[in-house]
């Protein structure tokens, strides 16, 4: 990547896991709003569930999630009781016992739950919802807190996919981010997963971490690829200490500069391709026979709060403190503070405290941004036809692409846009052209790469 482009376009822009993005949510959407939205859903429509387990055994200093560290299980058990109570409240607000094809456990550390509580959670969901026999049940797994008995219990409960956080295998980097996780710990858990029938394995890596170099990151990539996960996510570390105070424990002077971050990203992406992985969107990689690679080839890839996904359900129900749901009517975000979340649920109220109702214009622009993020291209005339608007309505947006076109980030043929290979890391800057909310309010975002 040319240095002048790095300086010009590595801007603070959203990650576009939703549109409008979360900084523009407001208290205008609350539990009563959410209840009306749930009741109005099509009973035949499938749902997806996201369960946020808001606790970890210890805090990783790079983490940008809403989580709390605890060494005791009592707070986790108490929180889980509230989460299951929320699941009941939501199921009662729905017009029917609706179908579930995807369940995702995130956190925090879902594997902080005991095997018994993990199984109890899935049994509870199967009672409240019509969880299909072939539903994908995915769990974010911390190899440091899982033994083989736990992995076996997860498999018996119906888990089909495990997402393993690694970030980096370098010992110095691990110490700097307070996540000591030797390679053999990760390899052992992957062996257990496969032995117990969980063959769909994701792995999360990160660039831009303290003390990382291109050479050290490539070492991590080689070790990760040798374990042959079906998917690898390569995220850029977002240093946002104004949002996550624990990130202040990371020495800022140890963070790679902008040019180094770009070199890390490009070198890691090239090495993953050499290992046989297909690049998915901006920051995911998959083996060619994986469902995500096939979805991208068929232009059927989607994007939600978990990133790139093959999930086509029009409704995502978020359960747990800080979870966000996506419905045809808009987005509904739960209370972030764990104690207030539990109190609200125990009062029998849905714990939504903010959100946003989406307009027709929002849905139109969301479709443009999703196709850009997923396909690296978009046909604006096709989008206009689908949303019954005039294609000329995009001409003002297209005029703002002039500098991106001139710099070779995007090409335009009529009203069809294609992100170039060099421009791929900057796709979020292209999406921002179509974001009518960007620049409004006091939202702060991470850099584009």
Helix content: 25-40%
Q: Bin the strand percentage.
A: 15-25%
Q: Give the beta-strand count.
A: 19
Ends distance: 12 Å
Number of helices: 16
Low-confidence stretches: none
Give the overall shape. Answer: globular
Average pLDDT score:
94
Describe the main β-sheet briefly.
9 strands, mixed
Structural class assignment: alpha/beta
Quick summary of this structure?
The chain has 449 residues and is of the alpha/beta class. The chain contains 16 helices and 19 strands.
Give the helix/strand layout.
Layout (H helix, E strand, L loop, with lengths): L2 H7 L21 H9 L7 E7 L1 E2 L11 E2 L4 H20 L5 E9 L7 H14 L1 E12 L6 H10 L3 E7 L3 H6 L6 H13 L4 E8 L6 H13 L4 E6 L21 H17 L3 E3 L3 E3 L4 H7 L4 E3 L2 E3 L5 E5 L4 E4 L2 E5 L3 H9 L5 E6 L2 H16 L1 E3 H7 L8 H5 L2 H5 L3 E4 L2 E4 L7 H6 L17
What does this structure look like?
It is a single chain. Strand 11 (302-304) and strand 12 form a beta hairpin. The relative contact order is 0.16. Helices cover 37% and strands 21% of the residues. The protein has 449 residues and is of the alpha/beta class. Helix 3 packs parallel to helix 4, helix 3 packs across helix 11 (338-346) and helix 8 (214-226) packs parallel to helix 9 (258-274). The model has no long low-confidence stretch (mean pLDDT 94). It starts with a helix and ends in a 17-residue tail after the last helix. The strands form 5 sheets. A 9-stranded mixed β-sheet has the order 9-10-8-7-6-5-4-1-13, sandwiched between helices. Strands 14-15-16 form a 3-stranded antiparallel β-sheet, covered by helices on one side. Strands 17-19-18 form a 3-stranded antiparallel β-sheet. It contains 16 helices and 19 strands. The chain is globular and about 60 Å long. The chain has helices at 3-9, 31-39, 74-93, 115-128, 148-157, 171-176, 183-195, 214-226, 258-274, 291-297, 338-346, 360-375, 380-386, 395-399, 402-406, 427-432; strands spanning 47-53, 55-56, 68-69, 99-107, 130-141, 161-167, 200-207, 231-236, 278-280, 284-286, 302-304, 307-309, 315-319, 324-327, 330-334, 352-357, 377-379, 410-413, 416-419.
